[in-house]
Amino acid sequence: MKNVLPVVIVFLFFSCNRERKNTAIQKPVANTFLEKVEPPNWCVGFNNTNLQLLIKEDRITNYQVKIDYSGVTLKNVHKADSPNYLFLDLVVDNNTQPGKFDIVFTQDTIVKKHTYELKQRDFNGEDIVGFNSSDAIYLITPDRFANGDHSNDIIDDLKENKIDRTHNYKRRGGDIRGIINHLDYIENLGFTGIWPTPLLINDMPESSYHGYAITDYYQVDPRFGSLDEYKELSSELRKRDKLELKEKGSLILTSKIDS
Predict the structure, then answer these.
(1) pLDDT, tens only, 170-191
(2) 11/41: higher pLDDT
(3) What is the pTM of this model?
């Protein structure tokens, strides 16, 4: 069975469980976290061993940084114009084992720790294929497609928290569950793949139903569902390989970056 690669910038953690024997001794970790570290986790086993982390924390440029984990090397630390941001250049070599470790920040007697995780991959990137001229791809704006879960229509903590099916630019409640519930419909139309517009969170006050106003590249918009539901959608599509319905570019960020 072939896996088809979603063209993504962020959700590498979707594919981070590939079987890999772990012989490393896991050191105790603090399980404490800074305000923001992106990407929030990574995977072992990539051909490209370079990894850059963005760190956001108050006055973090005043701190010295140290990492002690077998196979991970801190190559460089870049300070941003703002004192609240650092960029860490790491190398995760090919023999690195999955596990957790602390990134330690020290300033005189003050110590802050952020626990970071390297995961296993679900599948080998070399087994992934793209699409070609034999494919017919169904483009979906999830908010406009089908509402499969009315419980996530309104999320009070987000800036836009109303449903209005009479207004061209308001949200209408479509979600990942609605796509899952209609895979037979899409398949019966003769399509071989789906291309949803971005499913990442768009916490904007209005007119962001289309998905291209992303405010967090590492979180599925809760009005569309959860990460588990996204993975369920991916799994259901892969089950249909024999029927030639395959996943295509599920988190393409075409308005954000040329990937």
Answers:
(1) 999 999 999 999 999 998 898 9
(2) 41
(3) 0.78
Pairing of strands 110-119, 99-107: antiparallel
Nearest-angstrom CA–CA distance, 250 and 252: 6
> Which residue spans of the chain are classified as CATH 2.60.40.10?
17-121
CATH top-level class for 17-121? Answer: mainly beta
Strands 85-92 and 50-56, sheet pairing:
antiparallel
